[in-house]
Design a protein that fits this description.
With 186 residues, the chain is mostly helical. The chain folds into 2 domains: 92 residues, no CATH class; 91 residues, Alpha Horseshoe (Serine Threonine Protein Phosphatase 5, Tetratricopeptide repeat). 65% of the residues lie in helices and 0% in strands. It has 9 helices and no strands. It is globular, with a radius of gyration of 20 Å.
């Protein structure tokens, strides 16, 4: 399935779980003279196996989801590599789903400024999933930039189906209004 669609999340997760389980189980069972590995070593082996799987699948020029999964594994240890992978994933996906996933990953890792940089450089409001706006607005608020958040909210005006984004616009407008009230001197 992944050779046909390298971005099939369900298939990737299923294969990653198999690879993860095999990597965690291997080691001391194969060699009775080695000491049993601790949980940290097993988790590291499992992560490395998933990393290898993601890197292998990311070789496909259409693949963006494996890049995001490898970035998820590297977000704490390899800042530059994470941003490079997320940038490539966002460039490969014309729908904007990769950008949504990338921004969510950066925000969850406490890197809203990096999320803003990636989003500003790649968001196409007329074409991309409107969820990109959610992450950009919230990243701007998290970075202490409510006025920038307001500008990103305004970019939703470019989305062709205004009825589809009405609820999202209202939700984000409330968040921006709340953030603007917290600006010192207002």
């Amino acid at each position: 399935m992944l050779s046909d669609d390298p971005n099939n999340e369900r298939a990737f997760r299923a294969l990653a779980e198999i690879v993860r389980r095999r990597a965690a189980e291997s080691g001391s069972e194969e060699d009775p003279l080695t000491a049993p590995g601790n949980e940290t070593e097993r988790e590291r082996a499992a992560d490395l196996a998933v990393w290898a799987l993601g890197e292998e699948l990311a070789g496909n020029p259409r693949a963006w989801y494996p890049l995001i999964e490898v970035a998820r594994l590297s977000v704490r240890d390899d800042h530059e590599g994470t941003l490079r992978r997320l940038t490539t994933a966002s460039e490969r996906d014309p729908s904007g789903r990769a950008l949504v996933e990338s921004l969510a990953l950066l925000r969850s890792a406490g890197q809203p400024v990096d999320a803003l940089g990636l989003g500003i450089g790649h968001w196409r409001p007329r074409e991309h999933d409107p969820e990109v706006a959610r992450h950009l607005v919230l990243a701007a608020i998290e970075a202490g930039r409510p006025l920038e958040a307001k500008q990103h909210l305004g970019s939703l005006d470019l989305y062709p189906d205004q009825a589809a984004v009405a609820d999202l616009r209202n939700e984000l407008a409330r968040a921006v209004a709340h953030a603007e009230q917290t600006i010192p001197g207002t």
